[in-house]
Amino acid sequence: MYQQMIFVNLPVNDLDASKKFFTELGYTLNPRFSDENAASVVISDTIVAMLLTKPFYATFTKKEIADATTTSEVLICLSAESREKVDELVDRAIAAGGTASGQVQDHGCMYGRAFDDLDGHTWEVMWMDPAAVQG
Description:
Low-confidence stretches: none
Strand content: 35-45%
Order of helices and strands: EHEEEHEHEEEH
Radius of gyration: 15 Å
């Protein structure tokens, strides 16, 4: 059965530092789609973050590349299987050099935190009670 995938392409300042950051979060790199210009970070079977050097990223767009440390261009939200997993991933990101972003969101049936990666891209991590999802 076909599963649609998402490939999030992000410009980065230092590809090696970004690869180290994301592997410290527990993600793996796909060497088949990685080289000196890009790193393919496998987040799940259907989610891949493509970290692209800024010159390489610029070959895909005519637009100015946003400075994610001062401009919000996207909010990436990942689900987590529990509140503990939310905290675990965000805490690992901070330990790896990321920074906490925003406030903890605790709505009882939903819980989330966020971090900014080394280039300022905001990653939200959230858990939702499965009973609330089912309605």
